[in-house]
Amino acid sequence: MPVLARAQPAEDDAGFGVYVHWPFCASKCPYCDFNSHVRAGGIDEPRYLRAYLSELAHWAALAPGRRVTSVFFGGGTPSLMAADTVGAILDAIGNAWSVGADAEITLEANPSSVEAARFRGYRAAGVNRVSLGVQALDDASLKELGRLHTAQEALDAVAIARRSFERYSFDLIYARPRQTPQEWEAELKRAITEAAEHLSLYQLTIEPETPFHALHKSGKLVIPDDDTGRTLYDLTQEICSNAGLPAYEVSNHARPGAECRHNLVYWRAHEYAGVGPGAHGRLDIDGRRRATMTEKRPEAWLMRVESLGHGQITDDLLTAEERSDEFLLMGLRLTEGIDPVRYRALAGRSLDPDRIATLAAQGFVESGGDGFLRVTSAGFPILDAVVADLAA
Ligand SMILES: C[S@@+](CC[C@H](N)C(=O)[O-])C[C@H]1O[C@@H](n2cnc3c(N)ncnc32)[C@H](O)[C@@H]1O
Ligand code: SF4
After folding, report:
1. Cys staple from 129: which of 16, 106, 197, 325, with CB 3.0 to 4.6 Å?
2. Which segments in the chain show pLDDT lower than 50?
3. Which residue lies with its CA nearest to atom 27 of ligand 1?
4. How far is the CA of 363 from the centre of ligand 1 (A)?
């Protein structure tokens, strides 16, 4: 599998990301277990904005002086936010920290809430990249996934994204009920003709406590078996690589150099602040890595911020073991792999050479000329087992 052209930045030149979670959606998709909620009566957006600004000040006080390399508005459906709300949050981020001139500012958008004027507003507010939840290019699948848009509306949204932003990506879900390799091949090839530099391709997972979970359990929703899932995954890798969009992470494909810089911050285990209901953060304070999380329920988060100035409910100091496990878990998702020297610095011990040798002999990991340890294309489908073995 190809690896990223770019070397990892040194620790002191690492990225700092800001994740902003907007937890509201127009409707709840039956497969989704993200922290997303429908509020039929609408929400008081100016009141939420005030809370986001308060919480930002809280994170900036805890982690001052950082240079922001990426901001990501995720959800939920951030494309339901007013452009002024997005702009005010970006202004506050700029006041709290310094923001690099080349910072990547991404906003996730749902095709059912995309209009050209709305995208112009986001662009004027400072957004320079959008990620669209297309999910499928056929209407029957979109209906089954509970989406509010048709395939044509999704393609229209992609066209608006292309006209509005230099950088855009879209998501598709594959291994959907009854989907055959032939159908997926045609759909993916069609999608690639609409793609620019980046695609996120997720295999459908059945998440606990979702309507899909109940349907699946009762046999009313049948998804492709493991062998077909593997065929679909292999097909995805082959088609995307041939089209110049190799995987740089398990589910993410990009032209070399066009990887999502914000997600690289997570996978390279750098620092990020998480703002909004249920947002996670990883901050280095007094030389120790802290894992932070905020209250998940939007209204409870709002009230907490209004009384305390932030919605933070956890602040865990990570042990060397937790930190190095996380480093492996996240870093081995990337085709570039991990730097064993950085692992040793975090864990206080080296990876076990015998385990590496066994996994390498089985063809699941390899060492690159750069000294990085990476999972091979044969290892990716069993990534969890490979990571568990290395971390043991
Ligand atoms: C928070 S959503 C993205 C943006 C927006 N809310 C939307 O749906 O258009 C992130 C992405 O996760 C993926 N996703 C969510 N639940 C999934 C599941 N159970 N299986 C596979 N992919 C899933 C979808 O592709 C979705 O676009
Ligand atoms: S997939 Fe996107 S639109 Fe659907 S419920 Fe989840 S976050 Fe909301």
Report:
1. 106
2. 1-12
3. 133
4. 32
